[in-house]
Design a protein that fits this description.
This protein has 2 domains: 50 residues, no CATH class; 84 residues. By secondary structure, it is an all-alpha fold. Helix 1 runs parallel beside helix 3, helix 2 packs across helix 3 and helix 4 runs antiparallel to helix 5. The chain has 5 helices and no strands.
Length: 169
């Protein structure tokens, strides 16, 4: 007999995997006690069988109703996300159009604002004795108009940017 093979190896393995090993055929048990190959097969197969039995006990298969409920919730969520995707695009396009209109209005109002600041300077200048004070006042009005337009733009743009940043897409 070759030390790597045994003719009884398959029968020993079948008996161990079937769970009848200690009570199997007495001649097979006595052969496995004397044969090195069959003895190793018994040791390894017993460890594997015990591990398989332990792992089978730890598995907790969910109830069919729970699986169905989870799949229904997931399908509903996916369909809701698919339905809101065009609205998200519409909101983004609306935000871009609003920003463009705001920039166009600010661009067309800028010459009027500069002209208004010049008017304030010419109206306030005769009232004030110092020309430097009138220049500072006109400069402040000019910068405050820019700050007011920037603040208004932030008030309009900030919610749109927050919506786009926090949307699920």
């Amino acid at each position: 007999m070759n030390s790597l093979e045994c003719v009884h190896e398959a029968r020993v393995l079948d008996a161990v995997l079937a769970g009848t090993w200690p009570n199997a055929d007495d001649t097979l048990v006595s052969h496995a006690a004397q044969c090195a190959v069959c003895g190793e097969v018994v040791e390894v197969a017993m460890v594997l069988r015990l591990d398989h039995n332990r792992s089978g006990r730890d598995v907790q298969v969910p109830v069919a109703g729970q699986v169905w409920w989870r799949s229904a919730v997931r399908a509903r969520l996916e369909s809701a996300q698919a339905a809101t995707r065009p609205m998200t695009w519409l909101h983004a396009v609306t935000a871009a159009i609003t920003l463009g209109i705001m920039l166009a209005v600010a661009g067309s109002a800028w010459p009027v604002a500069v002209e208004g600041a010049g008017w304030v300077r010419s109206a306030v200048m005769p009232l004030l004795i110092d020309r430097e004070v009138a220049g500072v006042l006109a400069g402040v009005l000019r910068h405050s108009l820019v700050a007011a337009i920037a603040a208004a733009a932030c008030v309009v743009i900030a919610p749109v940017l927050l919506y786009l940043a926090l949307s699920s897409d």
